[in-house]
Amino acid sequence: MASTSAKSFHIRSTSFPSKSHPNLARVQECLHLVKVWEASPSRKAQLVTRLGHLKDLYASVNAFLQLPQTQQALCGKESLVRELMDDFLCLMDACGLMKDSLVQMREQHQSLQSMLRRGDSRLESGVSAYHCSRKRMKKDMVKCLRLIRNMEKHVSSSNDNLDLIDQVFKDVKAVAVSTFNTLSMVISGRKPTQSIFSRLLGSISSKDDEDGVSEIEKADVAIFRLHGSSSKAGRQEDAREAQRLMIELDVSLREVEMELEDVFRCMIQAKVSLLNVVAGC
């Protein structure tokens, strides 16, 4: 990550006081934490940490939006305010899709685990139902990625003429989109790819881009193997392996789900603060 652009998270001011307000400093601190996370060689399987940083970031954005200086500056930036409102809608829709998929996956795992414990003769039907459910999840993640990547069309390739307010919100958008892009890929079981925002935040090496993808893929493979297992011994071994992987994965999914719920709540609060700014202009 030594090649990370020096421009990433660099903020200049043309309309805001030169001395940072504590709320603005908190936004910058949260952005810095994500930058450090991106540069860490041990990012694998730390998506919960990433979501925690995003939650803190939006909490700090909410406080930043309540500053009189911020409100005054935004009243003169109609196009930025419209873009921010659109961004909130897209990101909250994407967040909702991901939350629903995580809940659905955990429910399906619990159902399959119950069948395995009881030795239910309908197990193959349960696996088929899970397979169909995963297909729907992947379609939902395609919708999610479409929502996220539509936001990239509004991003300038240059940061040279941005003032403080524009730069702050551009960096916040970069963090949110990069995080949601990774998470949607994780849920679908696909390998995360670099978007415009990922490149803006810094180059990510492919070997560190797994972030739990293999954990979900392994569980899927083990579950699908239960369908049509041949020998009794083979079925028992496959069942034990599938149960083990689902139990381990359930812990990770629950943590991600809880953090995502907190992110969603912080986004709602920040959106309300933005609406209050609009109402006061």
TrEMBL record:
<dbReference type="Pfam" id="PF03087">
    <property type="entry name" value="BPS1"/>
</dbReference>
<dbReference type="InterPro" id="IPR004320">
    <property type="entry name" value="BPS1_pln"/>
</dbReference>
<dbReference type="GO" id="GO:0048364">
    <property type="term" value="P:root development"/>
</dbReference>
<dbReference type="GO" id="GO:0048367">
    <property type="term" value="P:shoot system development"/>
</dbReference>
<protein>
    <recommendedName>
        <fullName>DUF241 domain-containing protein</fullName>
    </recommendedName>
</protein>
